[in-house]
Amino acid sequence: MKTRFLLLQAIAFIFLLPHMSVAEGNKTGPNVQWSQDELTMDVVVKNLGATAEASFHLVRLKGAEVPHIHDRHDLTVFILAGNSVVNFKDHTVLMGPGDLIKIPQGLWHWAKNIGQNPTKAYAIFTPPFDGKDRRVVEHP
Fold this sequence. Notes:
By secondary structure, the protein is mainly beta. The chain contains two helices and twelve strands.
C-alpha cells in the first residue's frame, strides 16, 4: 500500500511541475537549463524537489555511470527521451521513452546511454536522496 501511495505521489509531483519538454538542445523545460559544462558531462542530475517520503530528480545521461550501489535508497527511473541500458550483475535491461524501472536498495547497477542523443529521465529516490548514498563498486 505504501509503495502505491509513493508512486501516486511521485506521478502527481511530476505532472504538477511546470511543463517540461524533452527537446534536445540546451533547454529541457522552462525551469531547467543545462549549462555548457553540463552539456559535455556524461551524467548530470538536477534536483527538482522533495517530500518527506521521496526526492525527485531530472537526469541527463550522455555517457555512462560507474557501477554503484545505493545502500539506503530505493530508486525508480522513468525514461523521458533517449535509449539506455541498465546493467546489473547478471542481466541488462534496455530502456526507452516511457519505460520505468525500480532498483531496490543494495542492488549493484549502472546505466549507459546507447543512443545518438542523451537519455533524459526522472529519478525518484525513497527516502529522499541525501547525495551521499552512492557506493562505487568494481565491475564484476
